[in-house]
Design a protein that fits this description.
The chain is built from three helices and three strands; from the N terminus they run E-H-H-E-E-H. With 67 residues, the chain is an alpha+beta fold. The chain has a domain of 44 residues. Helix 1 crosses helix 2.
């Protein structure tokens, strides 16, 4: 059984809330990344959805900082 708090790794599209949970970020941060064109999204009618492939690509391009 899939719950909203634990999205299925095979899910293709995420809501902003689901994407925030998947990325361990806040919803407002996801909206800011979308507005800055750093996190691509698709519109289905008036609703924004984020592709899992885009979320994974976003994570992969993040710099790893070393202290």
């Amino acid at each position: 059984m899939t719950t909203a708090a634990n999205p299925s790794p095979t899910r293709a599209l995420f809501t902003v809330k689901g994407a925030a949970e998947y990325l361990s970020l806040g919803r407002s941060t996801v909206y800011e990344l979308m507005a800055a064109n750093k996190l691509p999204y698709v519109k289905v009618g008036r609703i924004r959805r984020l592709r899992r492939t885009e979320l994974d690509a976003f994570v992969a391009q993040l710099d790893v900082s070393t202290n």
